[in-house]
Amino acid sequence: MEIRVLGQGLRVPALGLGCMGMSEFYGTTDETEAVATIQRAMDMGVTFLDTADIYGSGDNERLVGRAIRNRRDEVVLATKFGMIRGDDGSFRGVSGRPDYVRQACDASLKRLGVEIIDLYYQHRVDPQVPIEETVGAMSELVRAGKVRHLGLSEAAPATIRRAHASYPITALQSEYSLWTRDPEEELFGVCQELGIGFVAYSPLGRGFLTGQIRTPEDLEEDDYRHRSPRFQGENFQRNLELVDHVRTIASEKGCTPAQLALAWALARPEDIVPIPGTKRRTYLEQNVGALEVKLEPAELTAIDDIAPSGAFAGLRYPENLMPMVNR
């Protein structure tokens, strides 16, 4: 497994595993298969695991903790705090208050069943709390031996600079894929300048880039993606046409569309680390196969031509959630 370095020294495999869908948002869940998927990932060298305290209202952290029990030293464990949910699962906003940072970390450690978190992200920036105060509280967790490295998620360039000046930030996690290329505008440059690693979530466009979603009816009734603008109406049809072009190039390359999309992300000069999510071993193994797909310059150009920045239709989150990203 190829190793990449986040920040000034956090060594992770070139491909990670997003665990969110194992507990919520993407239809039916199967904890037995999810645990087996995480353990298969570790066996294959995919040892960078990503979770968060809100996924499944804590259930995802518990699941990951069970899966890595007795194998803790094999993994780089990342989790997040900052988004608040009620007992009924409803979203109640964000918090970057120092007292909440400490409380959230202790709760995550307990659910995960570990003594230390390798990479601790602020899930969303709290505009009501100066980022210096939040990161200051996070840095106290490092000094207390509860956290090894700090990260931000969906933070804007100015916020990243202020945070990094307060305490070294190891990684920024933001959405990046063929259908979300926004980070190319400023975020990549800031991360490179400051020596911050970039972790790409949803590198398969929430599954759309796999080419397996042909109609909205392919998604289960309670699937979050029914509320995503890119999966609705005319946006869906326009995006499907672009994915069909990706399917064509993948067929010519002798790989799946998902492998092509991941190989494209892995070929970025910024050495980003994609963390495709899956809840099944079959798809995990297909995703790992992307590491064997090497794209030539002409192929990268062809992909860029069919999926330039802004080509895909629709906001990447429902309109009411967009103010929470890149801030």
Question: What can you see in these coordinates?
Answer:
It is a single chain. With 327 residues, the chain is of the alpha/beta class. Helix content is 36%, strand content 16%. It is built from ten helices and twelve strands. Strands 3-4-5-8-9-10-11-12 form an eight-stranded parallel beta sheet. Helix 4 crosses helix 5, helix 5 (157-166) packs parallel to helix 6 and helix 7 crosses helix 8.
Multimeric state: single chain
Low-confidence stretches: none
Strand order across the largest sheet: 3-4-5-8-9-10-11-12
Overall pLDDT level: 95
Tell me about the largest β-sheet: 8 strands, parallel
Classify the helix fraction into a percent range.
25-40%
The shape, in one word, is: globular
- Tally the helices: what do you get? 10
Give the termini separation. 34 Å
Order of helices and strands: EEEHEHEEEHEHEHEHEHHEHH
Question: What's the alpha carbon Rg, rounded to whole Å?
Answer: 19 Å
Roughly what fraction of the amino acids lie in strands? 15-25%
The count of DSSP E runs of length 2 or more, i.e. the number of strands, is 12
Keywords:
single chain; about 325 residues; alpha/beta; 8-stranded parallel sheet; 10 helices; globular
What topology does this entry show?
Blueprint: E1 3-6, E2 10-13, E3 17-18, H1 31-43, E4 48-50, H2 59-68, E5 76-81, E6 83-85, E7 91-94, H3 98-112, E8 117-122, H4 131-143, E9 147-153, H5 157-166, E10 171-175, H6 187-194, E11 197-201, H7 233-253, H8 257-266, E12 273-274, H9 281-288, H10 297-306
Helix pairs in contact: 1-2, 3-4, 4-5, 5-6, 7-8, 7-10
